[in-house]
Amino acid sequence: MRRFKLRMKKRVYKLDKNRWLLKNQPDLQYFEDKLLYSMPETLQQVAQGKSLARFGDGEIILMDGDDIDFQKSDPALAMELENILKNQDEKLLVCLPTMLTACDDYEVNWWLKFWYVRWKDLKHKLSLEHAYGHSMVTRPDFFIMYPEQAVQAWKSIWQNRKAVLITGEGSKLNLEHMLFDNVSARQIIYSKATNAYAEVDRIITEVRNTAEQNSLILIALGPTGTVLAKRFSDIGYQALDIGHITSSYDAAFQQQSV
Q: What's this model's pTM, rounded to 2 decimal places?
C-alpha cells in the first residue's frame, strides 16, 4: 500500500491533534458530505462515459513541491496537477481521497495525519463550484465496504471493450486478472517506473498510433496517470486512472477471508 512520509514530528502531531481537528473538522466534513461523491456515485459517473483522474497522497505532495519515492518534484508537473484539480471539463471526473471516513480506524487516522500536514495548502487550490469523485474507488476501501457492488461496477465499465493498459515497467498490475476477464482485447504500453512524467508525450503518441478512439485507456502510473487521464480525455478517449486496482482487490478479499 502506497504511503509517503508525512514530514512532521509525531510528538507535535499528538500535541496539536485535538486543536487542529476542532478548527478544521467543519471544512473537512462539509467537503466530504457536500462536495465528494460516494464511491458508488463515482462509478456511476464513470459508467456514463467520464474519464477518471485521481489525486492521492503522492499527487498532493508533488503539488506542494516535494518529491515522492518514484517521481521527483517538477514545477511543470505541479502546475499541471493543480490545473487538473480545478478542472471544468464535463468529460473528466477529478477525484480526491477521503477526508474523515474510511474502511477502518487505521485508514481514518492515517488520512487525518496527512490532512494535518497538507489540508491548509490543498483547500486553497480546490474548486468548490462542483463535486469531486472519490479516489478510493481503486483502493481496498471500495472492495471492503461494497464488495460485490464494487466488482460488478468496475467490470461493467470495460465489458466487451478493448482495454489499453499504460503502466510502469515491473508493474504488478496486469490484464489477466479476473477483474478483466470480460474485456474483448488487451494491449499494454510500458513506461519507465520512475519519473514517468518525462514520457507523457511519447505515451500519448503511441496510443494514438495503435489504439482506436473507442478503446478504454487504463492507467496505473502514479501521478503521471492523473496527467494522462486528463490529456487523453482532451483528445476524445475515455481514460481511467485505476492505480493498482488488482492489488487492492486481492488485499480486500484476502482480508475478508481471514
A: 0.91
